[in-house]
Amino acid sequence: MNPATNLSSAITRYVHHDDTLPLPQLRKLGLIYSSYRFVVSLFSMLMLYISARTGDGTSLPSFLQQTTLSFYVLLSLILLGLFYVVRKHMRRQLAFGLALDVIILSLLLYTTGNPDLQLTMLYMVVVAASFMLLHGSQALVITLLAIILVIYQQFFYAIANSMSLANLGDALLMSASFLAVGGLSWSISQRLVQLEKVAANHAKEVERLNVINQEVVTQMVNGVIVIDKQHIVLANLAAHQLLSLSLVTPTTAQNTFEDVKETQNKALLSNFEQQLNKQHSQLFNACLSVASGQSRAFTYDVPAVANASIFGKLRVQIIPLKDDSKLVILEDLRREQASAQQLKLASLGQLTASIAHEIRNPLAAISQASQLLMEDVAEQMEDDSALTSESNAAMTGNHELYEMIFSQTKRVNRIIEDILKLSRQQTATQQVLELAEWMPSFLENYFQGHDIFLLIKTKPIISFDTHQLEQILINLINNGLRYSSYAHPHAYVEIDIYCADNDVIIDILDNGNGVSAGNLELLFDPFFTTDKAGTGLGLYLSQAFCEANQARLLYIPEHEKTCFRLIVPSIKSDNKFQTIEENLT
After folding, report:
1. Helix, strand, coil shares of the chain as percentages rounded to 5?
2. What is the pLDDT of residue 359?
3. Which run of H or of E encompasses 444?
4. In this structure, are residues 106 and 153 in contact, taking their beta carbons and an 8 Å threshold?
5. What is the rounded distance in angstroms from the CA atom of residue 225 to the CA atom of residue 202?
6. How far apart are CA 415 and CA 182, in angstroms?
7. Of the candidates 331, 337, 279, which has an alpha carbon nearest to the alpha carbon of residue 300?
8. How far apart are CA 80 and CA 72, in angstroms?
């Protein structure tokens, strides 16, 4: 009782919890089986008439055989066309076709009179296909239908032939073989389904990892290029940005998303390779010339035709990969320079913090002493009216010397204050700034009453330390106003903000006499100045603050006006063209 119960529960569990093929695989196998059915029906029809013609003419096919095979050919063709055209209810279509196969084979078996080996093999194909293509319950119904029809038609045939039951045992053996083939087919189909699921899960995992890898490569700050067989097969967004190459998305006419994506990727890579070969032929040829299995590292100077004053130098690393492919990594040296500048600022801050107190104490004493001496000289010149002209001239000369000492102590104190600004901001605390909103507020706070003309062509967003950006702009605007006043009675400064590729450009323009060619190399050196009242630290500190924020400060001698250019990496920019002009007076 227990074994029978366990067997029944096992069969019930298998029938209700079996796994089936996914729909794409089911459609593929269903088309194969439908084509097989049509070929078998057509072949059986032809063989029936060929056998009749080659015989003596006495054993013509019966009307039942002709009718059955004719309907079988016609229905097989109809089922094949429906399965190919109609994509819904595929299992129902297959179940109907398999049931039709069993009925047709049973009719053919009845016409032969006894179990036939060929028909037995066709029965087994139907049973095996039912367990592979249908649910377990449907396949079991098809198998039981085949068994019932085989046994019934043999039993009916035996009765019609005077109760001769000699072939009934063969029919029972055939029915048992149906069950065995069905069980084996079901077991194999379950294994195939499990393998399909494992393969599908692995494919999904590989696709997920591929998407993650693509996203990681896309978001990398370093440029990544993969060269295989002398052609570029991968280039991320940073590579376009570092080399100032345009990223143009081509238009496609494909219907499926996969076709569109693949075509766009090929077009992007082809466009990137063409631009790289045109604008950076030296870099491209250097990458191609590296022998297979060899690595190389060098520094590449971005040519002026690639727009930039924006990027000066790139570190290029070529790493060999498998199958003779190469990995090219482009690194912007601005980040390295920014790190070095941070260390320099930290060291300078420690130095100034340690010596500022020691310098300021004697400096304050000298300044106070010079003031007291000037007061004493002034009192003596007022009280002692009987001084001779020689004594009066000597007192006047001493007063001038004391004033010179006092003014120079004030100048040294300003130099110390400028240097201490570095120690107060050792690490840049970057914040997201929308220049279209931040810049007018800054000019309103610091340059109210001056003629500052602001022109903003986009709405760029940058990341910068606000205090350091204020110090940079204050130095540049004050210099522009001062040197412009030397050349023209009406001093004014223009600020032009726009985007170039993936950077934000801030131009500070004035109508001064500019910087002479001989002073260009010394322009950003500490303590260099052409103004007697200046300390020579304004531009040096401004450049140091820029490097600490991964930005660049340049003097553009080619500009028609005196132009200092601040270049900052852009975070986000509004594509709408908008011009904002403000005259702060």
Report:
1. 65, 15, 25
2. 78
3. helix 435-446
4. yes
5. 27
6. 96
7. 331
8. 12
